[in-house]
Amino acid sequence: MNMDNITKTCIGLQCGAGILNQLTPDQWTALGVIGTLCFSGATFIASVAFKIWDRKHNFIRREEED
């Protein structure tokens, strides 16, 4: 590594630390809740998409009802 790369890395870390310090604990909590809701929504949508794909292609064999 040369000094130019080290300098760019240090500047990037200082910018990141500045962003981290700008949010209050309540804002971090809200960000965590929003992130959790987005992740849960994406998981739900993926699950529904796989169910639709499975029913369309009948990939998983199901027992037929008598």
Secondary structure: elements and pairs:
Blueprint: H1 3-22, H2 25-57
Keywords: Membrane, Transmembrane, Transmembrane helix
GO molecular function, one term: pore-forming activity
GO biological process, one term: symbiont-mediated killing of host cell
Please characterize this protein's 3D structure.
With 66 residues, the protein is an all-alpha fold. It has a domain at 25-60. The chain is built from two helices and no strands. The protein has helices spanning 3-22, 25-57. The longest helix is centred in the middle third of the chain and has 33 residues, at 25-57. The radius of gyration is 23 Å and the shape is elongated.
Strand coverage percent: under 5%
**Overall strand count:** 0
Number of helices: 2
Major pleated sheet: none
Estimated radius of gyration: 23 Å
What do the pLDDT scores average to?
79
Shape field: elongated
Helix-strand topology string: HH
Low-confidence stretches: none
Structural class: mainly alpha
Spatial separation of the terminal alpha carbons:
71 Å
What helical percentage do the residues reach?
over 70%
